[in-house]
Amino acid sequence: MSEAKIIENLKEAIIELDEVKVVEAAKNLIDQGIDPLVAIEKGLSAGMTAIGDKFNIGECFLPELIRAGNTFNAGIKVLEPEIAKSGAKQSQTGVFVLGTVTGDVHKIGKEILAMLLKTRGFVVHDLGEDVSLSTFVSKAEELNADIIGMSALLTTTMPAQKEVIEFLKEKGIRDNFRVMIGGGPVNQKWADEIGADGYAETAEEAVRLAMKLMDTK
Ligand code: B12
């Protein structure tokens, strides 16, 4: 089976909410030596975007979003050891405190980022979802973090990213950390506006950026 067809199968499996198909396609992909990161972006994530679009126009509802998330995770579970193998590094790159902002429970993108950061040597403290402003800041201080990463998938929760940065400034500790933001509705313009040190559209770009930011510390 061609690489394009396998990646298409991954995407279809998400849209069809088919966990058996996603596992089969992911295994197939490993057998064929296809880059799992390409498969995540072009297959699994593309499927999630399609589900999101269907949700937007009322063609599917919350239960389908939840099942799509489960299907996505079933695929990732198969790919994860492969990704770890490809990027395994011994030395510690930096300490990364990561979470989804308050009011927001989307975790799939954040967890992919956590996984990739770990394969590149970062020590990742995933604070979970619906993380309050004070938790982000107190944990970053306690763990002596190099980078704080905040995920927001809702336009209504994006302002929480700004509030964390403002809080860091109020406490006079803004310069102790690099701050990265991401998530569907977030973009570089928003990052500039709120004074974040970086934005990345995908987890792969985010890891590259995190490594670059470490050089500026
Ligand atoms: C799955 C899903 C859910 C699941 C979440 C399951 C889970 N545990 O994560 C459930 C069902 C719970 C859910 C609920 C809701 N959802 Co929802 N959901 C989605 C969906 C379909 C996929 C999200 C996803 O996982 N994408 C796949 C991952 C891989 O992509 P990603 O998260 O963007 O992450 C990538 C990058 O953004 C980046 N990244 C992510 N985080 C970070 C952090 C940093 C620091 C960096 C640098 C990069 C980075 O790297 C990742 C990998 O490349 C999206 C549609 C979409 N296309 O995104 C809607 C979507 C996000 N949801 C939406 C909505 C409206 C809701 C609800 C309000 C629905 C409702 N009426 O209740 C609730 C809100 C719940 C809440 N309070 O949070 C809207 C948001 C609209 C908006 N712009 O505000 C979307 C866009 C759907 C739509 N088209 O309308 N949802």
Describe this structure in words.
- By secondary structure, the chain is α/β, with parallel strands linked by helices.
- It folds into two domains: 3-87, Orthogonal Bundle (Methyltransferase, Methionine Synthase (B12-binding Domains), Chain A, domain 1); 94-215, Rossmann fold (3-Layer(aba) Sandwich).
- The protein is built from nine helices and five strands, in the order ααααβαβαβαβαβα.
- It has helices spanning 3-15, 19-31, 36-56, 62-87, 108-119, 133-142, 159-170, 188-194, 203-215, and strands at 94-100, 122-126, 147-151, 178-182, 198-199.
- A five-stranded parallel beta sheet has the order 2-1-3-4-5, sandwiched between helices.
- Strand 3, helix 7 and strand 4 (178-182) form a beta-alpha-beta unit.
- Helix 1 (3-15) packs parallel to helix 3 (36-56), helix 1 packs antiparallel against helix 4 and helix 6 crosses helix 7.
- The longest helix is centred in the middle third of the chain and has 26 residues, at 62-87.
- The mean pLDDT is 93.
- The protein binds cobalamin.
- The site of cobalamin (B12) has 38 residues, from helix 3, helix 4, helix 5, strand 3 and strand 4.
